[in-house]
């Protein structure tokens, strides 16, 4: 069971890292008006959103579903913040494509990523801090 947990955790982190990298690649293509490349890369990014959600759900159901109290609550908040982060990424891309101000999207991106990282690595049992 420990090995599966280890690999699930690392798979989830890897999908997030690739997702964040793809997000910035899409933004770069959008800013350079390379619509075809932006569209293809955004579809790949959306596929990674699914991977992120699936690996996150597996981690949650395997590790936090039966817990109680603060750990359960923090895991739910982290899950919601992760979905919020995906929404903020899509908001930034959409506003950039339309030429609108992206301040609100970037603010939400920053708040959500801070919350996700603080809970995921700092507070929850599978993080790097004891």
UniProtKB/TrEMBL annotation:
The chain crosses the membrane at residues 13-31, 43-61, 76-96, 103-124. It comes from Piscibacillus salipiscarius. It is found in: Cell membrane. Keywords: Cell membrane, Membrane, Transmembrane, Transmembrane helix. Belongs to the UPF0344 family. Its main location: membrane. It is a multi-pass membrane protein. It holds the Pfam family DUF1516. The keyword NAD does not apply. This is UPF0344 protein ACFSW4_11085.
């Amino acid at each position: 069971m420990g090995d599966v947990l280890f690999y699930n955790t690392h798979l989830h982190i890897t999908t997030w890292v690739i997702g964040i990298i793809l997000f910035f690649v899409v933004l770069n293509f959008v800013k350079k008006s390379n619509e075809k490349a932006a569209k293809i890369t955004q579809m790949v990014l959306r596929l990674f959103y699914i991977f992120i959600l699936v690996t996150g759900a597996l981690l949650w159901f395997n590790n936090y579903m039966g817990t109680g109290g603060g750990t359960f609550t923090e895991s739910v908040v982290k899950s919601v913040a992760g979905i919020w982060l995906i929404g903020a990424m899509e908001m930034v891309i959409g506003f950039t494509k339309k030429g609108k101000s992206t301040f609100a999207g970037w603010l939400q991106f920053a708040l959500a990523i801070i919350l996700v990282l603080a809970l995921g690595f700092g507070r929850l049992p599978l993080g790097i801090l004891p």
